[in-house]
Amino acid sequence: MIRTIKRTAIILVLSLGVVLASRPLATTEWAQNMRSRSEQPTPDERNQREEQPNSGGLPAGLRYTLPFVKEFVLMGVPGLVTLCILRVTRRRRLAASSQDDTAMD
Questions:
Q1: What pTM was computed for the model?
Q2: In which region does residue 28 sit, left (phi positive, over 0), alpha (psi from -120 to 50) or beta (all else)?
């Protein structure tokens, strides 16, 4: 139980460090450009988009599925890699402890 709390505390402290380290990025010119690109379109821009329904060049189905693919790639792949690493380290740890147990006998 204490081991789990200790690991959780370490993860929280590291996460807080990452957040605090990335905070100054919010005031850079790059961040301003990102915010200006993500602003809502004006009514004139919306009317132009309605006149050209497929102006993006992507089929309608891909517009809805690509964000999910992006989320899977950005979150799922690192998660799976982490699980694989944990499994390998757990197996090594169990193998080492079983060897220690047999050596004691």
A1: 0.41
A2: beta
